[in-house]
Specification:
The termini are far apart. Strands 1-2-3-4-7-8-9-10-11 form a 9-stranded antiparallel β-sheet, with no helix packed on it. A two-stranded antiparallel sheet has the order 5-6. The protein is 7% helix and 51% strand. A hairpin with a 2-residue loop joins strand 9 and strand 10. It is built from 2 helices and 11 strands, in the order H-H-E-E-E-E-E-E-E-E-E-E-E. With 230 residues, the chain is mainly beta.
Length: 230
C-alpha cells in the first residue's frame, strides 16, 4: 500500500475513523485523495424503509446504499444502490426492485470493477470467496417484479421476473463471466406445501439470455423433499 494500511480498533471512534478513511493518511501529506480512497477497501452503508397507507393498503419504499469509501463521515462514495417498492394485493406481497453494482472507482467513472472485481483488492465485496449483498458475483444491473404469498395453512407461493445485465464491461476477473457479458430475462417460481412431516417444494426456472452474440434458452423444473424428525 502506498500509505498506511487497514486499521483495527475497538472503540466507536476507531470505527468512524476507518469508515471515513481519515486515520491512515491523516498525518501523511504525501497521500493524494485517490490514495486515500483506496485505503483498506472498507465498506460503509445504510438501509432505509418507509411505509405509508395508500387506499387502505400499506405501501413500503425501501433501499440500500453501500459504498467502498466515505467522505466527511457520512457521504458514501463509490456506492452500489438498491431501491424497491412493495405492497399487498389480495393477500399477496407484490414488489418492484432494482439494483446496480456497476460502481465507478473514485474519479474514474469508466472503470466499473470496484465491488466484485476490484483491481487492487482482489477479494472484492466477498467473504470466504462468496459474494455479499448480491445474488450475482459480478458487476450487475437487475430489475425484478415479483409476487409471493403465504397461505393460512403454511403453504408458500412465489414467482418473479428478472431482467439482468451482467459484466457489461467484459473485464476480468469475474468468476461468473470470464471476459464475457450477458443479458438475461428470467422467470422463476415455486410452490411449497407440507404433508405430515414432509415438506414438498415444486419449482421452475426459465431463462432467455444473450451471452455476447450467442442466444440460448434454458429451463429447469425441480422438486425438493424434506423430512422433519420430531
Amino acid at each position: 500500500m502506498p500509505c498506511g494500511g487497514e486499521g483495527q480498533g475497538n472503540s466507536f471512534s476507531d470505527f468512524i475513523d476507518v469508515v471515513s478513511l481519515q486515520k491512515e493518511c491523516a498525518n501523511d501529506m504525501t497521500c493524494s485523495k485517490e490514495e486515500r480512497s483506496l485505503q483498506g477497501n472498507h465498506h460503509a452503508g445504510f438501509d432505509f424503509t418507509y411505509t405509508v397507507m395508500l387506499v387502505d393498503r400499506p405501501l413500503t419504499i425501501y433501499g440500500q446504499k453501500i459504498g467502498e469509501n466515505a467522505e466527511h463521515y457520512y457521504q458514501i462514495k463509490d456506492s452500489a444502490n438498491l431501491f424497491g417498492v412493495s405492497s399487498y394485493i389480495l393477500g399477496s406481497k407484490v414488489y418492484l426492485e432494482t439494483s446496480d453494482t456497476n460502481v465507478g472507482c473514485s474519479t474514474n467513472s469508466q472503470n466499473k470493477n470496484c465491488y466484485y472485481e476490484h483491481g487492487v483488492y482482489q477479494s472484492g465485496y466477498r467473504r470466504y470467496g462468496r459474494a455479499i449483498g448480491s445474488t450475482f458475483d459480478s458487476d450487475a444491473k437487475m430489475i425484478t417484479v415479483g409476487v409471493n404469498k403465504q397461505f393460512s395453512d403454511g403453504d408458500l407461493f412465489e414467482v418473479s421476473l428478472n431482467r439482468l445485465e451482467l459484466n457489461q464491461d467484459q473485464q476480468q476477473p469475474s468468476p461468473v463471466l470470464q471476459g464475457n457479458s450477458e443479458k438475461l430475462l428470467r422467470l422463476s417460481g415455486f410452490y411449497q406445501t407440507q404433508f405430515g412431516n414432509w415438506l414438498v417444494k415444486l419449482g421452475a426456472n426459465f431463462e432467455d439470455g444473450d451471452l455476447d452474440e450467442l442466444s440460448e434458452f434454458d429451463s429447469l423444473i425441480y422438486s425438493e423433499f424434506k423430512y422433519r424428525i420430531n
